[in-house]
Amino acid sequence: MTRLDADLGHIRAANPRRGIRSWTLISTRIFRVHWMLLIGAAIFSTIALTLLVTPWIAPFDPSSQNILKRLASPSAAHWFGTDQLGRDVFTRVLYGGRFSVAMAAITLILCAVVGTIIGAISARAGGAADELLMRLVDLLVAFPDVVIALFLISVFGPGYGTLIVALTITGWTPFARLMRGLTLEVNTKEYIEAAEALGCSRWFIIFRHIIPNTLGPIFAISFLRFGHKLITVGALSFLGLGVQPPNSDWGAMLADARNFMDRMPWLMITPGLAVFITALSVTLIGKGIELERNRGRDENASSPYLK
Amino acid sequence: MNMIDTSLANHRANPCPATPMLSVDDLVKHFRIRGRLGRQDLVRSVDGVSLDVMPGEVFGIVGESGCGKSTLARAILKLTPVDDGRVLFEGTDLATLSGARLKSFRRNVQIVFQDPYAALDPRMTIEQSLMAPLSQHRIGTPAERNAAIVAMLHEVGLDETFLPRKPSECSGGQLQRVVIARALLLKPRLLICDEPTSALDASIRAQILNLLMDLKSRFGLTMIMISHDLRVVRYICDRVAVMYLGKVVELASRDVVFSNPAHPYTKALIAASMLDSEEVGGLPEVPEGETPSPIRPPSGCRFHPRCSRREALCGQLPPRLDTVGGAHWAACHFPQSGRKPEV
């Protein structure tokens, strides 16, 4: 065997391992991601998937009543027991979650979009417009958002449409504040100056240069705010201002369960735990993204010059 | 033309009878910063600069860091509001431009920045960065724009394989070529180069300068070359303005500035840049001390605390930019003389 053959043989022998190696590469990639992001994403995707397929997997109809079996303890048939009207609590937690999570998500996305655009405009405009918008933010922050939402709901009437609008009006401020700071930072970059010198329009600069370069922190804070949104939606529903019967979400379930707390704590614990676990998982994702970003920044702090 | 006539004529260093492409007229730009104890401080970044740039010339602006060169460039581009004075581009006062007329001015004057890594959006591909000026000015159809981008990439010595790349996948020299291509896509007549080579490796600087000179003749550009590197200026500029602490201290053709500098600061600057060459015999005249702060510039002549030729007058009266013979202007009470006259 010549040396060349020996080399080729070595390569041939190594070749079958390439498949295995690429698999280990993918799995190490996944496990290099921060554990908070990993666990949060795992829990939340399970929750989201379950809620998505609820109509097909729910063991009972959420509104079918069975007075004979009212306030039953958890059993094989009714995993979380039954409520005061004999409805299956597990089914109701699933259906309630669809409302709660969807409303929190829609509100959050609206808040993020509105806040990001207003924050970017404010920072780019500067001067009196900037001052006016930021004082408006101060004004809205000064009132608790539940109070403002209560006021708006009392004007426009309860219902989830009003709830989403009310929470958006009160909820965009943290995004606008963060975005304003981020925009001021990006504004000092030479590519913004270059875009101005090239005659790019202000919308082009905001949507094509500033927003793409600030998306990371906005993404992180969106996830971190999700828990807050879920609890605010829950609180307003608890007060009877959100989803109206016969539909129900986690907040409304908590309100219903209040009267039976001493006899049947499961009624209260299950929707409460659902809110807690969902909020925790999304917050973990947000925290994980933030840590991941910081880690990336440390690693290639001077990368453009090293690459 | 005698001394009295020129000193009366509003401080204009206008040696040619032709109309200038760009006139900067007593331009003032101050930055307000918050000093200690909430006091407002004024940084006199550009403090009364007048100069003319003639069509087709390469006009150099030199001076050390912080002397206001880049601020002057940004004022000429109308990227920053000015406090006093005006900038005329082909007779039009930039202060009067807005909306559509400002946009058409943008097509005439472009800039190449110092740091190509910062001048390109890291999230955009080269293609997106190059497409932006054309689509924003609604030049041509999408197919024509693509063709124009590819043609321009070839002009600057790159090719279409760069289109899908991100800035992080290119070298500094390649990115500077992209920045130059982007500026030239709008077919400007005046190109301002703000230290286009100082962020690049020494081996690439000459390539970029040669490219700029090559493009200048092919596109018929007028150029303003801002630099702190006198070798760059000596290599490519026709006329040179030397700035010190927000003021022009000397303005003349390149040969005059380098062979017969009248201002002691210019002399020191040239001496410092020639340390390694044999043209200057003996130890150069290096100015004493540090550059003063532009927040509290010295009284009288701003260079006087560091000047070897200062006299009592220098600390009291700021010198005016006056001719010291023909098209050679200097702001010095005691301009250097006795060397051979201008070339």
TrEMBL record, chain A:
Location(s), subcellular: Cell membrane
GO terms under cellular component: plasma membrane
Membrane topology according to the record: Multi-pass membrane protein
Segments traversing the membrane: 35-58, 99-121, 133-153, 159-179, 264-285
Keyword hit for Transmembrane: yes
Domain ABC transmembrane type-1 per the UniProt entry, residue ranges: 97-286
Keyword terms: Cell membrane, Membrane, Peptide transport, Protein transport, Transmembrane, Transmembrane helix, Transport
Entry's Gene Ontology BP terms: peptide transport; protein transport; transmembrane transport
Source taxon at top rank: Bacteria
InterPro entries: BP-dependent_transpt_permease (IPR050366), MetI-like (IPR000515), MetI-like_sf (IPR035906), OppC_N (IPR025966)
Family named by the database record: Belongs to the binding-protein-dependent transport system permease family.
Name of the protein this chain belongs to: ABC transporter permease
The species this protein was found in: Microvirga alba
